[in-house]
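Attaching the record inline, Q. Sequence:
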Amino acid sequence: MEVHSALAAGNLRHNRTVLTGEQFPEAVFSGGGTGGVPSLDGGWLQIDGVPVRIDLRVKGVRKGSRRLDMWYLDRQYTYRSGGSGREAVLSRGPVRVTIDGVTGKAGVERSGSAEGGADATDLAVAIVFEQVDTACLTLSGALLAIPRNLLMGNGRDEG
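Structure, as predicted:
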């Protein structure tokens, strides 16, 4: 398995994270951002070339009011993240993939677990988000988004 992030070719505004591996479907997340890592807000996801419908739900500052809902083929996912280096959870019915907080050197080592019969697609989605800026799902990200949402609405640019 390989995960890499880079500036998307020919596009100065979008960064891209790609997960590839022999036993995994290709997962590509692309969006604006800085430092070569795409931002969740306004980004898009494809799995094996199939677009994934994503809906970023930042409805308030309470923990349960910030999540990413996704639909891929016949699957519906919910993704929640505490931010960079913190716990992230991808769920689909009884399936749950948890990526724990940093266990070793920051940004290098993460551990996780899978429950409920998670398959390679579930793991690919959870892992690709490890190289995506998910700050908009954190408390500070939600607080920073309030003025922007009031001024500009809650619309998203799907890239």
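The radius of gyration is 15 Å. The CA atoms of residues 80 and 121 lie 17 Å apart.

More tomorrow.
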